[in-house]
Write a structure and sequence with these properties.
alpha/beta, tripeptidyl-peptidase activity, 19% strand, four-stranded antiparallel beta sheet, 26 strands, Subtilisin-like protein
């Protein structure tokens, strides 16, 4: 896979050692060190200046799952009573006691109060200081690791975080203060785009033939999807509704491609465009035009827009042309409370703004610039192992907060089955480093799909020579539906019965060497939709594309249409749907997918089966039934 994000900072990392014993999340304890093991290269030079960012412990995170359930579980008396952003921010903000405990520790250690800066959200305290000072005052030692030529990480350990402070600290991140730092390319395997097909087809394989309902096994069009999933809702209140698609610069769409697509499949939309929201200097660049640059944006927007017309689609174009952006960047933009100055984001994963590089977005980062859209789809993912546990957790809690505010967050589950991006698998024992596909190798789950507070969408197909009226299978053409079990996140309550049922009734032929088979970890995907033979207009031609990028847009469109119907009847949006879709009472709203599997790592992967499975989740929606059920809820 091509590298999506070029990272330009010689930065990074966080302190684990001293903090590892206090974290009160199961997964923290298990993985309190950087998940990517790197050989120590050298001690950090003493003349370097660094900034230490101390992430303060938020309140009430332990109860976040229950809090989210209280507004998302249909049996809860508070169902649908979503919280305001202000209430969410206040409920979770670090307490004053936390702020003052950490401040007084730092001042006692010898820092001048002027050196400390508290972020607006009270989430972080930052100290700009020098290497000798942190060594002296905090007994912190920092090493520089060179991961690949030009890619450096700083990691530090402190033996001096006192017990009474540890409970107030979530994570510590150290960044190099980079003046005239050389441009460094970020390593290959962090955040990679979910490809819209796993085996790239030549640019512009042209669709020959006339797509119609009669040949949906060969050409998947909006018309086929409407038939497959009984999508038949005419938006009544499009202007009161919202649906956003996230793209990361330099990924872009071409207006001419949208028009070509609309001319075939949605004639009323010609010349329509998404509403652009530029996050951290995000631009729809037109300089480079190819399937690599436009394949994702074209696909996402063509299907999102066609299926919910005339409801407007918002494009959250994230990151400037120099650094790009990461998941935290779009989250900052929709929730100001997630945003912090200088260091809320992980420079190893996200763009850090202002970006003073030539051509960079030299402005404060986009922080709370729009209200959270009611449905957000993201066709990008990263291998879970490339995120530190602290980073993944913090981001995952943010998704829970957005769910609490009534937003449905949908991520594609990945296109490589049980393997990670590019087909990479993990080394058996360490679970840390990827090895090439072959026999063996630990399965490589995808993040944020493994976050229990998002909805992960897998891919299905109409079987070759079958009709649109027959049952689908898991997608096995070019792409294989991402699915499996997290190495970080514990199992959320809502999927316990379904996942345990699968493991018991259809025990996969693998051991704990391949995946965490304890029945105690988050499993994905949650549901699925078609991702095979998708007809897209791309770089001037109609072509085919494959994968969960398409699927996630289909589910996003369906949830948006259901929101419209609810809004038109004076009800709220559906928000976080997972607690609902796993309930037996809702199973009739899904076509259970029972055939196909998601190969990878030299194995056939998991197999779809009756009930939930780690290939297609609970199945594909019947919108008519789902709408009816959701309209009955308050
Ligand atoms: C570190 O900061 C000090 C004080 O601001 C400054 O004099 C020095 O030049 C900085 N060193 C580097 C390498 O940037
Ligand atoms: C990065 O990608 C290039 C080209 O695909 C490859 O040659 C190189 O080995 C990769 N580096 C790492 C660290 O994976
Ligand atoms: C376009 O491609 C060229 C050559 O690969 C590259 O140098 C340039 O940065 C790209 N521009 C954008 C906007 O991505
Ligand atoms: C589908 O039908 C074509 C033409 O009859 C045939 O050649 C092909 O083998 C069939 N494919 C499958 C998977 O049955
Ligand atoms: C699997 O997950 C459980 C629950 O989080 C954990 O206790 C166990 O150690 C994990 N197993 C492995 C092999 O990581
Ligand atoms: C794709 O479109 C371009 C311009 O619209 C055209 O020149 C090219 O021949 C097309 N590709 C194929 C494979 O037909
Ligand atoms: C969806 O459910 C409705 C109502 O039960 C049914 O009439 C329709 O045939 C179903 N759609 C599909 C594609 O199965």
């Amino acid at each position: 896979m091509r590298l999506l994000f070029l990272r330009v900072l010689a930065i990074v990392s966080w302190v684990a050692g001293a903090l590892s014993h206090r974290a009160n999340h199961v997964a923290h304890r298990r993985h309190a060190v950087e998940s990517v093991t790197l050989a120590r290269a050298r001690r950090l030079e003493a003349h370097r200046n660094i900034t230490i960012h101390i992430g303060l412990k938020q309140q009430h995170l332990d109860g976040i799952e229950e809090t989210l359930m209280s507004v998302s579980h249909p049996d809860s008396p508070m169902y649908g009573q979503h919280w305001s952003p202000a209430k969410v921010a206040k409920h979770f903000a670090p307490s004053d006691a936390t702020v003052s405990a950490v401040e007084s520790w730092l001042i006692k250690a010898g820092f001048h109060p002027d050196q400390l800066r508290l972020s607006r959200s009270k989430g972080w305290i930052s100290i700009r200081t020098s290497v000798p000072d942190i060594g002296f005052l905090l007994k912190m030692e920092c090493d520089v690791h060179t991961h690949s030529p030009g890619h450096e990480r700083i990691s530090c350990e402190s033996s001096l975080v006192p017990e009474e402070v540890r409970e107030h600290v979530d994570l510590i991140r150290v960044t190099h203060v980079h003046k005239d730092a050389p441009l460094l390319k970020y390593s290959n395997h962090t955040q990679s785009k979910t490809p819209s097909f796993s085996k790239p087809l030549p640019d512009g394989i042209v669709v020959h033939g006339v797509p119609s309902l009669a040949n949906c096994d060969k050409f998947t069009t909006p018309q086929c999807l409407r038939q497959l999933y009984s999508i038949d809702i005419k938006p009544e209140v499009p202007q009161r509704n919202s649906f956003a698609v996230v793209e990361f610069t330099p990924q872009a769409y071409l207006g001419s491609d949208l028009d070509l697509f609309f001319s075939h499949f949605s004639t009323s939309q010609e010349k329509k465009r998404p509403v652009l929201v530029s996050i951290d200097g995000g631009v729809v660049q037109q300089q480079n035009q190819s399937s690599t640059y436009d394949g994702e944006g074209d696909l996402d927007l063509e299907y999102a827009m066609a299926l919910i017309d005339p409801t407007p689609v918002t494009l959250l174009q994230t990151g400037d042309l120099v650094q790009g952006g990461g998941f935290d960047n779009w989250l900052d933009a929709v929730d100001g409370s997630f945003c912090t100055f200088e260091g809320g984001d992980d420079p190893n994963q996200d763009g850090v703004y202002p970006d003073t590089q030539p051509g960079g977005f030299d402005h404060p980062e986009s922080c709370g610039i729009i209200a959270p859209p009611k449905v957000v789809t993201v066709s990008y993912d990263q291998d879970e192992f490339t995120a530190t546990v602290a980073y993944a957790m913090r981001q995952c809690y943010e998704y829970a907060k957005l769910g609490l505010m009534g937003t449905t967050i949908l991520y594609s589950s990945g296109d490589y089955g049980v393997a990670g991006n590019g087909g990479a698998c993990l080394q058996d024992k360490s679970r840390c480093r990827p090895i090439n596909v072959g026999k063996g190798g630990r399965f490589n789950p995808s993040f944020p799909a493994t976050c229990p507070y998002i909805t992960a969408v897998g891919a299905t197909q109409i079987n070759p020579n079958s009709t649109v009226y027959e049952p689908e299978s898991a997608c096995e053409q070019f792409a294989h539906s991402g699915g499996g079990f997290s190495n970080i996140f514990p199992m959320p309550f809502y999927q316990e019965a379904a996942v345990k049922g699968y493991l018991k009734n259809h025990p996969p032929p693998y051991t704990a060497e391949q995946y965490n088979n304890s029945g105690m970890v988050r499993a994905y995907p949650d549901l699925s939709a078609n991702g095979a033979n998708i007809v897209v207009a791309r770089n001037g031609n109609l072509s085919f594309t494959y994968g969960t990028s398409a699927s996630v847009q289909v589910i996003g469109a369906i949830m948006t249409l259901i929101n419209d119907a609810r809004l038109a009847r004076g009800k709220g949006t559906v928000g976080f749907i997972n607690p609902l879709i796993y309930l037996p009472a809702y199973s009739s709203a899904f076509h259970d997918i029972t055939t196909g599997s998601n190969q990878g790592c030299g194995t056939p992967g998991f197999t779809a089966a009756k009930g939930w499975d780690p290939v297609t989740g609970v199945g594909t929606p019947n919108t008519t039934v789902l709408l009816d059920m959701l309209l009955r809820l308050p």
